[in-house]
Input
Amino acid sequence: MLDLQGYGWLLLKGLQMTVLVGLCAMFMAILFGLLGAWGKFSHSRLANWAADTYTTVVRGVPELILLLLVYYGVPKLIQDGVAALGYELRLDLNPFVAGFMTIGFIYGAFCTEVLRGAFLSVPRGQMEAARAIGMSKALAFRRVQLPLALRMALPGLGNVWMVLIKATALISLIQLDELMRNAKLAATATHQPFTFYFLASLLFLAITLVSMLVLKRAETWAKRGVRV
Amino acid sequence: MNWELIGESLPKLLAGAGVTVQLTLFSLAIGLLLAVPLALARLSHNPLLKYPTAGFVFYFRGTPLLVQLFLIYYGSGQFRDVLSDMGLWTYFRNAWFCAVLTLTLNTAAYTAEIFRGAIQAVPRGEIEAGKAFGMSGWLLFRRVTLPKAFRIALPAYGNEVVFLLQATSLVSAITVIDLTGAADLIRSKTFAVYEMYLTAAVLYLIMTYVLVYAFRLLEKRLNAYQHRSA
Output
């Protein structure tokens, strides 16, 4: 039998952290995605420009560079700014917060495109009907446009989630004790790098498999009112 | 912003960018060669071809590239004796070799999946037309199915190439000095944190847009028969 030398629990704790970071990042990604989609549809030139820049720049730069830029760059920038005013300040970001914010920001750009497509596919008549029966713009958005768009967006958001959860492995490089970094600790301590990295990869596969099942159910649920 | 330092570090960063381009091209070329037979094996009715390739594709698409890199570079150390006996240890000890190997397997898995979809999407009529001309087997595949599948796959493959270019940044985690690695190295010596990463980001953006533009041209050329004036 496989001897994990007592490091099995460390992997499971890492798994827990990975899923937690993933969920927080996905939540941020959907928020950024909604914001981005709003920017693309907005009549304001500035909002269009900001949303376009967001999606093109974020998708053109590696995640790792953005992560390092946020984790190391932002505190340094603030420190330099404060130093210019004649004060001294030592600032460190929490890797958990920096990690899920950055990953959420990056995948928000992908969510923007998914949500943009989804909102485009909601028939105009739906919104007009909602307005005609007296719903305010906000209420019609919340009760009609958003639910219909989310149904369309679900497969696309599922894809984003699958890529996002794998991207969380990068946060191990800024010292967050998630699955990948705990696997590294165990690998170093036991001199069995292959065993532990392979186990970690299988746990990632398990997340992917469970996600596929959940998504399939969610899609069936979302389509419950649709006749084919 | 320390512009002077950025200017001074530019040669080193560009050298790193050279490594990035090299890694991308190497892995793309070998990955592409592997992807076509993999896609065919995945479509085959022979269970001995079908299931192992399906497993390979599932594994490499379902796990993070960083884990794959560590598995091959650090993980191979666990089998040092066996690899030494086979005369392979000199390769696995080399981070650059491990980087290309991992990136190649990774992109081969994704590309195989793109090609599988594309081969399935080749219109039946075109294959039947080829058959009517008396082509069959390998000739039919080489002259009709593959060129058409390649055209269908082109937009998705363009995305995969961009993803691979960005994914190469992870090799800095296994000590390869690519663009990210070079930026990291200078950062640790000079504490010019945002200057280095921002410059690297701009260089990655430039490389990405060159690629996107090249694929747009290629698509225009290969799929010219589809383009209609709006």
Observations:
- The interface with chain B takes residues 57, 59-66, 68-69, 72-74, 76-77, 166-170, 172-173, 180, 183-184, 187, 191-195, 197-198, 200-201, 204-205, 208-209 of chain A (CB under 8 Å).
- Residues 62 and 155 of chain A are 24 Å apart (CA to CA).
- The helical segments of chain A are 8-41, 45-60, 63-84, 95-120, 124-132, 137-167, 179-190, 193-222.
- Chain A has eight helices and no strands.
